[in-house]
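job 3f2a | input accepted
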Amino acid sequence: VEELEDSIAGRKFAKLEGKQVPHFSTLNRWIGKIPPETVSQINQIICESLKAHPASAGRKKEERLRVECTSVETNIAPPSDSRLLSKKES
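job 3f2a | predicted structure (90 res):
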């Protein structure tokens, strides 16, 4: 969400030109209302599209597109606790 506030291209892509960027809690609430079946259908459509038009065609195995979309529920209160994420172990 912060990236959209300062990015003309990002706002255009998200169709938010001339509009207020939603707060992250609003986006989280909207995302939470998407039924798991719908998320599964979206994933299936994306997978079928990639099979039909592979983004990795002609590339070496180590150069292929890879997406990580794991999410874990947490009680970290943004942004006050986010600094804990960058601390290195001694």
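job 3f2a | The helical segments are 2-6, 8-13, 24-32, 36-52.
job 3f2a | closed
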